[in-house]
Amino acid sequence: MNNDLKICGGLLCLLLMVAACKPDTAKLLTGKWRAVKFENNLEFLAGKWNAVSLSNPELDNFYINGQKFIDTVGKNNDAATNKRLYGTENMDSARMALQKKFDSAKNMQASGVKSTWFYFGEDGVAILSFQGAIDSSSWYVDSLGFLVLADRNDESKGDKVKMEILALSDTMMQLRFKEAGSYSVVTFHPDGPRKQVPPPMVETNFNFRKDNLAELTFNGEIDSVKWSLEGDSVISISNAAKGQDEEPMQWSILALTKDDLRLRIVENSSVSTLTFKREGK
After folding, report:
1. Is the distance from CB of 173 to CB of 188 less than 8 angstroms?
2. Residue 238 CA to chain centroid, in angstroms?
3. Which residue segments constitute the domains of the chain, with CATH numbers given?
4. With 60 as the cut, is the pLDDT of residue 28 above it?
């Protein structure tokens, strides 16, 4: 019993030490920051993208287990047992027939992926092709950075599909979405070159104060906002003026040290990454 108490006491001390060593995000964030780099990869999104692969853990396991079954079915049984279980004693022929159907299903799935393409128009309209069936939808990026496809048909108007943008560059796009209870990741390659025009770097400075007010300078213009932390990775930004009922913006903290800060900001269908250096000490 005493040993158990000692072990519990030691674990408690260890947990307290870990908690004490954990960086104080609010304390690290407080102070003046100067933007040194601005990135907006959504400029790559407009245009046509061709699907090249699909990854789905459940589907992948189905194919793996299906192939194992075909490779081993009937091999450990005698002819009478195979006749009773599978209706035939010639399991070599049965395996060949199963393999043919299995390969056909895999090829159909692969062909379906490769005949899928998305076109994102700069007017907010997307053209989508799934296995030769073409449809259109409205598209935008929501406040959390998800790509949203909204149905434009009168009968199903309001239906939306949300996709997480896992990667987006001039050579590749990866979208993650949930369907029928499981997640899939589709990888696309651009149809034609993507050219990014580097945005001009304007004066941008943030000053996060201890009283949870912040002065934000964009292109020389100063705005005052309220800020708070949600966990250790999200900054909630709201209008400092009284009587404002707007939804607060959510800024993701990608990296934070005593001297460096990287923020992911989603606003007006635009996802930007800003890199800052601390000013002063």
Report:
1. yes
2. 25
3. 24-40+199-279 (2.40.128.280), 47-198 (2.40.128)
4. yes
The rounded distance, in Å, linking the Cα atoms of 258 and 251 is 18
Global confidence as pTM: 0.57
- The span from the CA of 199 to the CA of 219, in Å, is 13
Between CA 33 and CA 247, with CA 279 as vertex, the angle to 5 degrees is: 15
* Alpha carbon distance 29, 10 (integer Å): 32
Report the candidate in 160, 156, 157 with the shortest Cα–Cα distance to residue 148.
160
In DSSP terms, 278 is beta-bridged to: 33
180 with 193: CB under 8 angstroms? Answer: no
- Model pLDDT for residues 94-103, shown as the tens digit of each residue: 889 999 988 8
Question: Which residue carries 């022929």 as its tokens?
Answer: 93
Taking the C-alpha atoms of residue 27 and residue 208, their distance in angstroms, rounded to an integer, is 10
**Torsions phi, psi for 93 (to 5 deg):** -65, -40
DSSP string, 63-84: HHHHHHHHHHTTTTS-HHHHHH
